[in-house]
Specification:
288 residues; alpha+beta; Phosphatase 2c, domain 1; 7-stranded antiparallel β-sheet; 5-stranded antiparallel β-sheet; 8 helices; 32% helix; 26% strand
């Protein structure tokens, strides 16, 4: 089956709590195409005094480190079933933490900028997922599965033991049918259980295959608005990495409960420079 290049986009939704207080969204999202793949990242700094800035710096740090790694991995062939060496993953994880620390500053600044982060790199035959704090990394192919399931909400960048509490995985995509990665903040779950989250991920792939990236991302603000309400008004972020197929069978997926409400305030990221724009009931995104 022939496949097309990976596409990437993401949405950050400002929940009712922040909108009521006229505060900015504490979440950040970034999406970038690189040689042979893409990088997507979401972060949530809702629990810290300078969380929005910490989240923005988190997606930038993860993106820079993962993109640099991706340019190397894209040239490295991988056997089906291969995994990246633990030492390689450890260096990559430290690189993300150090890049964020360098961007934020001293220990006091790190605490005030604390943020949760989830990110995925796809490069050639390889994929890497990285996460700390609340949030999911889901892969969808013939089935939907958690790569890194919802983490410890108490863990974060800038928090105690961040190096030990961060989670990372790296594996070969050769022979792997994965065609969609979703990374999301805890608020994007909207109180749904694991089974519902996986059903919705499968439903997204079916819609992406039928409609393409831009129309689907155009409606994600609606999905996140409902999830935010179910999560008590929390901010919510979601990013996609999608590899279209020239021909594909439709998945038998249950969309779960509704994805057709109105968004109030969200930002769409279609590029690494995060030239986001505010949107109303319908959110636009450009295809990468």
């Amino acid at each position: 089956m022939a496949t097309m290049a990976w596409q990437a986009a993401g949405v950050a939704y400002a929940g009712a709590t922040h909108r009521h207080d006229a505060r900015p969204c504490a979440g950040a999202v970034a999406a970038r195409r690189i040689e042979g793949g893409c990088v997507i990242a979401v972060a949530d700094g809702g629990g810290s005094p300078r969380g929005p800035a910490g989240a923005r710096l988190a997606v930038e740090a993860a993106g820079d480190v993962l993109a640099a790694c991706g340019h190397v991995l894209a040239r490295e062939p991988a056997r089906p079933g291969a995994v990246l060496a633990p030492a390689t993953l450890a260096r990559l994880s430290r690189g993300i933490l150090e890049a964020w620390h360098d961007a934020v500053g001293d220990d006091a600044a790190r605490a005030s900028h604390a943020a949760a982060l989830a990110a995925v790199l796809v490069a050639g035959d390889w994929c890497v997922g990285w996460q700390i704090g609340a949030g999911d990394v889901i892969a969808v192919g013939e089935r939907a599965r958690f790569v890194l399931p919802d983490g410890d909400a108490r863990a974060c960048l800038g928090g105690w033991g961040a190096a030990e509490r961060a989670r990372i995985a790296g594996w070969s995509l050769r022979g792997d049918p994965t065609r969609l990665f979703l990374v999301s903040s805890g608020g994007a779950r909207g109180g749904r259980d694991d089974a519902a989250a996986l059903r919705i991920a499968g439903w997204y792939l079916a819609r992406l295959d039928e409609e393409g990236l831009a129309p689907v991302v155009d409606g994600v603000g609606d999905d996140l608005a409902r999830a935010s309400r179910l999560a008590g008004g929390a901010d919510a972020t979601l990013a996609f990495a999608h590899r279209p197929a020239s021909r594909t069978a439709r998945l038998d997926s249950d969309p779960g409960r509704g994805a057709s409400i109105r968004a109030s305030s969200c930002h769409v990221s279609g590029g690494w420079d995060e030239r986001s724009r505010s949107v109303g009931a319908r959110a636009g995104a450009r295809r990468l």
